[in-house]
User: What shape does this take?
Amino acid sequence: MIPFHRRRRDGRVVASFTADEARLLLSLADEAAGLARAAATPDGPQADPALGRLLPDAYPDDPEASAEFRRFTAEGLADRKEHNARLMARTLGEPAGRRTEVALDDAEASAWLRTITDLRLVLAARLGIHEDGDEGDIHDEESAMQRAVYDWLAAVQEFLVLAVRPRR
Assistant: This one.
């Protein structure tokens, strides 16, 4: 699997996904937009610790300062995260046929990278992955599937990073 494999002459990076992969990415992008919105709510991070990974406390040792910082920044950060996720979904479009091809300009590629990062942060929190090398808590079919998606997103992200980096 090498989804992002080339840069066109117009500067866009090109990827090709199977219909199932494209549908999964579309579903994840929609989920990321909803998670961004939920993370900005006052009770979001307390209700779901995974949301706390999207908008972490700025001052973990000072709850009052953290709450004040969140009051001024959470909405704007959530708006940008939601915008990135929606842009990812728009560039994917509706999967039709056996393969879906996307061609991303630099801004779209950046939105994809940010959204994939957000999705991986949420999955890591839900799986109990705290640092590189952690396997996470894989105890049933659902957590095994989440881990597979987490790893697959890492590969997609890596290929996208390699595709957008400047050539020497």
In short: The chain has one domain: 4-164. Residues 4-164 form one domain. The mean pLDDT is 90. Strands lie at 4-7, 13-18, 99-104.
